[in-house]
Design goal:
InterPro entries: LSM_dom_sf, MS_channel_1st, MS_channel_C, MscS-like_channel, MscS_beta-dom_sf, MscS_channel_2nd, MscS_channel_C_sf, MscS_channel_TM-2. By secondary structure, the chain is α+β, with helices and mostly antiparallel strands. It is 70% helix and 6% strand. It has 33 helices and twelve strands.
C-alpha cells in the first residue's frame, strides 16, 4: 500500500520537480553550453598532436560525444518548434476536421450517387473502381496511424513518468560531477553541459506533451471519426459501383442473347432451327458466365478490402504490443481484437480450385469449337452435306448469319471465361493471403493475451473497495429480456430442442429396463460360461443412457432460452453445452464409483475406497459447476473481465473450495500403493487450484479462468481414461482366465484318455492382474496412451502458441565462433524448458522404449541368448547420453569452451576414478564381446551362480542360495572365468563308486552301465562310460562318466544314479566297500582279542592280581 502511494505521488511530483529544476538551472550553466565551433576547434587542435596522451585521447572521445549531443540538441529544438507550431494550429485543425466531417455528412445521398453511376458507361465505371480502392486503402492506413497515435497519447503519462524520472536522476548526477571542481577537464565540462541542456529540452518537451495531451487526443478522435466516415463512404461507393457494373454487364449480355434469338426466328428449316438452338444455348451460357463474373468480381473486391484491413490490424497490433507491454490497456485492446476476429464475416469462396479447373476445361472446349469455325465456308458445306433435308439458298444465308453470330458469341464467352479465370485466381491468392494474415493475427493474440494481466492485483485496497465496486457492477447489470426476439427465434430453436426432450423422455421411460439389464449383467459376473468381455462395456453404456436424460434436458433448456436476451446467444449456448457435458461426465463417474456399482463389481475396487472417492467427487461438482460458467464467459467474452470484481471473488472462493475437496483425494492416492506417475498426477491435481488462485490474485484473471476450463476438460479426459483402461484390464483378465480354463480342460481330457476312470473336476480360480500377460498389458497401455495423447494435444492445441511467447524471455547468451566471427545467440526461457523436457523425454524413453522394443521386435527374432539384453542396455545408455547432450546444448552449454575443463577432469579421473573407469570400459567390452550373457552359469574365483544383470560398472550373479553377488566388471575381464553355458550347455558328470575286494568286476561294469542307460537325464550320445581306475586301500575304485544336456540336470542325475546303483548292487550281491577298522585288545601276557560288532563281553579280571586263563 505505501509503495503504491509513493508511485502515484512520484507520478505527480516528478514532472513538477523536473520543470522547477529546469527553470532554476543557473544562467551560468545555460551560458556554458559549448558552441559547435568551439568544440570543433578544440577537437582539431587535439587531432594535430602526433602522439596524444591518454588524457588527450579521452578528451577526443568526450568532444566527439559532445558534437553528437549538439546534433541531438538541434533536433530537439526543431522538434520543439514543430510542436509549438502544431499546438498553435490545434484549434484550426479541429475546425477543419469538423468541417470535413460536416461536408462528408452533407454530401451526396445514396440515390444521387446511384443515379450518377447509372448514367456512366461500363468502361467509366470500371475506371472509377481503382480510385475508390485507393481512397479506401488511404483511409485504412490513416486509421491505423491515428490508432497508434491514440495509443501513444493514452500511455503517455506512464512513459513520461519513467523518462522524466530517468532524466532527473541524470541531471542530478551531472550537477554533482560539475561541482567536483578542478578534477573535471574542460572537455568533460563541455560534454556534461551539452548533455544537461539536452535533458532540459527533453523535459520541457515531455511537459508540453503532457499539458496538451487532452487537446491532442480530441484532435486524434476527430480525425479517427473523419477517416471512419470517409472509409464507410468509399465502401458504399464501391458497392454501388459493383452493382451498376454488374447490372450493365449483365444487361449487355442479355441484350446480345435476345438479338441472337431474334435473328432467324421465322425460319422453319430443321437444320436452321438446330443451329439457332445451339446459338441460343451459347447465349444463355454467356449470361450465366456474366453473372458468375459479377459475383467473382464482388467477392474479389470484398476480399481485398478485408485483406487491407487485416494487414493494417496486424501492423497496429504489433505496434501496440511493443508499446503497451505490462499495461492493463493492452489486455483491453487484445480482448477487443480477439472478439472482432471471431466476429469477422466468412467471405471465403470454397472449391475455388475446382472452379478454376472447370474454367480451364470450358476454355479448352470453346477453343475447339472456335477452331472448327475457323474456315466457315468449309464448315457450312460439311453441315449442309450432312443434312437429310434440302437446303435452299435462303437457308444457306441464314446458316451463314448464325455461324457469324456463333463466332461472336464464342469470342464473348471466351473473354468472359478468361475474366472469370483471372478473378478466380486473384481471389484464390487473396484468400490465401487473408487466411495467413488472419492466422498471424490470431497467433499473436493467443501468444500475448495469455501472458497479459487482465485485472489489477488483489491487495488490501482492492479488498477495501470491493463492496463499492461489487455494488456498482451489480447495479450496471440490468436484466432486460428481449421477449420479442425470443418469440421470433422460438420456432427455429424448438426444432432443435424438441428432439432432445423427446429422446430424454424416451430414456426416462425405458429407465427400468436399463436397470434390469444392469442387474442381469451383474448377476452373470464371475460365472464362467455367462461372463463375457462385453459385459463391462455394456454396463457402462447402460449407465451412460441412464444418466443421459439430465444432460439432454439441460441442453434443451439452454437452447430454449438462448435468444431471451439475458446473455448473448453465443455465451448462453456455450455455457449450456459445457454444463450438459460436465453433468454427463460427473453423473456417469459417480454412478460407476458408487458402492455396489460397476467399480466394485467389475473392477474389484475396495468398497471403503469407493465410499471415500464417491463422497469427495459428489461434493466436488458443486464448485466446478459455477467455475465452468465463469471459464466459458472468460473465453467467449474476455473483454468483460476488466471490472468483474464479483467474478474474481467467486473464482477465488470456488477455487479454494475445490482445493479443499481435491486435497483428500490426492492425499489418499499419495499414501496408497500408487506408482510414481500416479503420485505425480495426484500432487499436480492438488496444486492446480492453488496455482490458479495465485494467478487470479496477481491479476491474471483471464489466464486463471482459461486454465480452469482446460483443466476441467482434462479432468474429464482422465476420468474417461480411467474407465476405459480398467475396462481393458478386465477384458484381458477374463481372456487369460478363459485361456487357463481351456488348458485345464485339455489337460483333463488328455488324462481321461489315459485313465478309464476319468479325471477330477476342475475348480476355476480367478486370476490376479499380475498373471495377465505383460505384453498384452503393455500394448494396451501404449495404444491408450497414443489415443489419449492425441486427445490431450487437441484439447490444448489452441494454447500451444502461448508458449512461443517464452522465446522473448532471454535468460543469457551463448557465442558461436571465435574472434571477429563470434556471433551471440540468445538462450530463452523456452529453450531451457525444452531442454528439461528433452531430458525428461530421454529418461522416459530409456526406461520404456528398450523393454517395449524387446517385447514387440527382439522377442520375435531368433537372437542368441543375451543379445537382446545387450542391445537394449546399449540403447538405454545411448538414449540417456544423446538426450543429456542435446538438452545441455539447448540450454547453451558450449562443449568447445569446456575442453580445458575436460582435460583437467581427465587427469583427475585417471588417478581418482581409475577403478570406476576400468569397470566402465570392461562393461562395454562385455556387452559387445559377450563372454558372459544374461542366464549364463559361471564360476569366478569362489563364486558360482547365474548371471542376472550386466551393468556398465558391475555384473550381478544369483548364486544357488539365491543370494545376489555383485562382481566388478574388471574382475570378469582379468580373472579366470568359467562359463558353463557359453557355447554349449552339455556337461560331463562323474560318479565314483568303490566296491569291495573280491567283487565281480564285469558284473559291476554292467550294472553301472545299466543304471546310466536307464536314466532319462543321461545323454545317449556321447554314451556313458565305466572305468576301473585304481586299487584302493579297501576298495576297487570305478568311475561312471556320462553327459547331461542342461546344467540343472547335474545334481538330479547324480542323485537318481546313486539310488539306482545302490538298488542294483544290493540285488546282485555286490558290496559297496567303505573304510573299515578292526580293533584288538591285548593283555599283559600278550594275549589279544578282537572286538566284534556283536558287543561280546570280555571275561572279568582275576582276583588277587591273577590274570584270567
Amino acid at each position: 500500500m505505501p509503495s503504491i502511494r509513493f508511485k502515484r505521488a512520484s507520478a505527480t511530483l516528478l514532472p513538477l520537480l523536473c520543470l522547477i529544476s529546469s527553470l532554476c538551472t543557473p544562467l551560468a550553466m545555460a551560458q556554458d553550453v559549448p558552441s559547435r565551433a568551439t568544440v570543433q576547434r578544440t577537437l582539431d587542435s587535439l587531432a594535430k598532436t602526433e602522439t596524444p596522451t591518454v588524457s588527450q585521447q579521452e578528451d577526443q572521445k568526450l568532444l566527439t560525444s559532445t558534437l553528437a549531443l549538439l546534433d541531438s540538441i538541434d533536433k530537439e529544438e526543431a522538434k520543439a518548434k514543430t510542436q509549438a507550431q502544431r499546438i498553435r494550429n490545434l484549434p484550426t485543425e479541429l475546425n477543419e476536421i469538423s468541417a470535413k466531417i460536416d461536408a462528408l455528412t452533407k454530401g451526396k445521398s445514396v440515390e444521387q450517387i446511384k443515379s450518377e453511376y447509372a448514367s456512366m458507361s461500363l468502361a467509366e465505371l470500371d475506371s472509377r473502381q481503382p480510385e475508390v480502392l485507393a481512397n479506401m486503402q488511404g483511409a485504412q492506413e490513416a486509421l491505423g496511424a491515428i490508432g497508434s497515435q491514440l495509443t501513444t497519447l493514452q500511455t503517455l503519462p506512464e512513459r513520461a513518468q519513467t523518462s522524466m524520472s530517468r532524466a532527473y536522476q541524470r541531471s542530478q548526477e551531472i550537477r554533482s560531477r560539475l561541482n567536483a571542481g578542478e578534477t573535471v577537464s574542460s572537455a568533460e565540462k563541455m560534454k556534461l553541459n551539452a548533455e544537461s541542456a539536452l535533458l532540459d529540452l527533453q523535459l520541457a518537451l515531455l511537459q508540453k506533451d503532457l499539458d496538451n495531451r487532452t487537446s491532442m487526443q480530441d484532435l486524434a478522435v476527430k480525425q479517427r471519426d473523419y477517416q471512419s466516415a470517409r472509409l464507410a463512404s468509399e465502401e458504399q461507393k464501391l458497392q454501388l459501383l459493383q452493382e451498376q457494373s454488374s447490372a450493365k454487364r449483365l444487361g449487355d449480355t442479355e441484350k446480345t442473347a435476345e438479338q441472337t434469338g431474334e435473328l432467324v426466328a421465322s425460319e422453319d428449316n430443321p437444320l436452321v432451327q438446330k443451329e439457332q438452338e445451339l446459338n441460343h444455348q451459347l447465349s444463355q451460357q454467356l449470361v450465366n458466365a456474366t453473372s458468375n463474373l459479377n459475383s467473382l468480381v464482388q467477392k474479389n473486391l470484398q476480399a481485398k478490402t478485408w485483406l487491407e484491413r487485416g494487414i493494417q490490424t496486424e501492423r497496429n497490433l504489433n505496434e501496440q504490443v511493443q508499446m503497451l507491454k505490462g499495461n492493463l490497456l493492452l489486455s483491453r485492446i487484445l480482448y477487443q481484437l480477439y472478439q472482432q476476429l471471431e466476429a469477422a464475416p466468412a467471405i471465403a469462396v470454397k472449391n475455388l480450385e475446382e472452379q478454376i479447373a472447370d474454367l480451364h476445361l470450358a476454355q479448352f472446349e470453346l477453343s475447339q469449337q472456335r477452331d472448327q469455325l475457323f474456315q466457315k465456308n468449309l464448315y457450312l458445306d460439311n453441315l449442309i452435306a450432312g443434312s437429310k433435308d434440302p437446303v435452299s439458298d435462303e437457308d444457306k444465308a441464314s446458316l451463314a448469319k448464325l455461324l457469324d453470330t456463333r463466332i461472336n458469341l464464342l469470342d464473348q464467352l471466351n473473354r468472359q471465361l478468361d475474366s472469370q479465370l483471372t478473378n478466380a485466381i486473384s481471389l484464390q491468392l487473396t484468400q490465401q493471403q487473408l487466411a495467413r494474415t488472419h492466422d498471424a493475427i490470431e497467433f499473436t493474440l493467443q501468444q500475448h493475451i495469455f501472458w497479459v494481466s487482465s485485472n489489477k492485483p488483489i491487495d488490501s485496497k482492492w479488498l477495501i473497495n470491493w463492496p463499492t465496486q461489487a455494488y456498482k457492477q451489480a447495479s450496471d447489470w440490468v436484466l432486460k429480456p428481449d421477449w420479442k426476439h425470443w418469440r421470433a427465434q422460438l420456432l427455429a430453436v424448438s426444432v432443435l430442442a424438441f428432439p432432445l426432450l423427446l429422446i430424454g423422455g424416451v430414456l426416462m421411460w425405458k429407465r427400468p429396463i436399463l436397470i434390469e439389464q444392469q442387474k442381469r449383467i451383474t448377476k452373470d459376473l464371475g460365472r464362467f460360461r455367462q461372463d463375457s468381455q462385453w459385459h463391462t462395456p455394456k454396463a457402462l453404456l447402460f449407465t451412460l443412457l441412464h444418466r443421459l436424460p439430465g444432460s439432454l434436458f439441460i441442453l434443451a433448456g439452454g437452447l430454449l432460452v438462448t435468444y431471451c436476451g439475458l446473455l448473448s446467444p453465443k455465451l448462453t449456448f456455450q455455457i449450456t453445452l459445457n454444463l450438459a457435458l460436465g453433468y454427463l461426465v460427473f453423473s456417469v463417474y459417480l454412478a460407476v464409483m458408487r458402492p455396489g456399482g460397476i467399480a466394485e463389481s467389475h473392477f474389484r475396487i475396495p468398497k471403503a475406497e469407493l465410499q471415500a472417492t464417491h463422497t469427495s467427487m459428489r461434493y466436488l461438482w458443486l464448485p466446478l459447476l459455477p467455475l465452468i460458467m465463469l471459464a466459458t464467459k472468460a473465453v467467449v467474452e474476455p473483454s468483460t473481465l476488466g471490472n468483474d470484481v464479483i467474478g474474481q471473488a467467486m473464482t477465488l472462493s470456488l477455487l479454494g473450495l475445490a482445493a479443499y475437496l481435491v486435497f483428500p483425494i490426492s492425499r489418499a492416492r499419495i499414501k496408497g500403493e500408487a506408482s510414481m506417475q500416479k503420485s505425480i498426477i495426484a500432487i499436480a491435481l492438488a496444486l492446480a487450484p492453488v496455482a490458479l488462485i495465485v494467478l487470479a490474485v496477481l491479476g491474471y484473471y483471464y489466464t486463471a479462468l482459461k486454465l480452469t476450463g482446460r483443466l476441467i476438460e482434462s479432468f474429464y479426459l482422465l476420468i474417461t481414461w480411467g474407465l476405459i483402461y480398467r475396462t481393458a484390464l478386465r477384458g484381458l483378465e477374463l481372456a487369460a482366465r478363459r485361456l487357463a480354463y481351456r488348458r485345464a480342460v485339455a489337460k483333463r481330457d488328455h488324462k481321461s484318455q489315459e485313465d478309464a476312470e476319468g479325471g477330477e473336476s476342475i475348480e476355476e480360480q480367478p486370476m490376479d492382474l499380475e498373471d495377465v500377460s505383460q505384453q498384452s498389458l503393455r500394448l494396451t497401455r501404449t495404444v491408450l496412451l497414443v489415443i489419449f495423447g492425441v486427445a490431450f494435444y487437441w484439447l490444448w492445441s489452441d494454447l500451444v502458441a502461448v508458449f512461443s511467447y517464452l522465446d522473448s524471455m532471454v535468460l543469457w547468451h551463448k557465442s558461436e565462433g571465435t574472434g571477429a566471427n563470434a556471433i551471440l545467440f540468445p538462450v530463452s526461457l523456452s529453450d531451457v524448458l525444452i531442454g528439461f523436457l528433452m531430458l525428461g523425454g530421454a529418461w522416459s524413453l530409456a526406461r520404456n522404449l528398450p523393454g517395449l522394443l524387446e517385447v514387440l521386435v527382439l522377442s520375435r527374432l531368433r537372437l542368441a541368448q543375451g543379445t537382446a539384453y545387450a542391445f537394449t542396455t546399449m540403447l538405454n545408455y545411448l538414449l540417456i547420453g544423446v538426450g543429456t547432450l542435446t538438452a545441455l546444448s539447448m540450454m547453451g552449454v558450449q562443449w568447445d569452451k569446456l575442453q580445458w575443463v575436460a582435460g583437467g577432469l581427465s587427469v583427475g579421473i585417471g588417478f581418482g576414478m581409475k577403478e570406476i573407469l576400468s569397470n566402465f570400459v570392461s562393461g562395454i567390452i562385455i556387452l559387445f564381446e559377450r563372454p558372459v550373457r544374461i542366464g549364463d552359469t559361471v564360476t569366478i574365483g569362489s563364486f558360482s551362480g547365474t548371471v542376472s544383470k550386466i551393468r556398465i560398472r558391475a555384473t550381478t550373479l544369483t548364486d544357488f542360495d539365491r543370494k545376489e553377488v555383485i562382481i566388478p566388471n574388471q574382475q570378469l575381464m582379468t580373472e579366470r572365468l568359467i562359463n558353463w553355458s557359453l557355447s554349449d550347455t552339455v556337461t560331463r558328470v562323474i560318479v565314483r563308486v568303490g566296491v569291495a575286494y573280491g567283487s565281480d568286476l564285469e558284473l559291476t561294469r554292467t550294472l553301472l552301465k545299466q543304471a546310466a542307460d536307464e536314466n532319462s537325464r543321461v545323454l545317449k550320445d556321447p554314451s556313458p562310460i565305466v572305468y576301473f581306475l585304481t586299487f584302493g586301500a579297501s576298495t576297487l575304485d570305478h568311475e561312471l562318466r556320462f553327459f547331461v544336456s542342461e546344467l540343472g540336470d547335474r545334481n538330479p542325475a547324480v542323485d537318481e544314479l546313486n539310488r539306482k546303483i545302490d538298488q542294483l548292487f544290493r540285488e546282485n550281491g555286490i558290496e559297496i566297500a567303505f573304510n573299515q577298522m578292526d580293533v584288538y585288545i591285548k593283555n599283559m601276557q600278550g594275549e589279544e582279542q578282537k572286538v566284534e560288532s556283536s558287543s561280546t563281553a570280555l571275561p572279568p579280571p582275576a582276583e588277587d592280581g591273577k590274570q584270567p586263563a
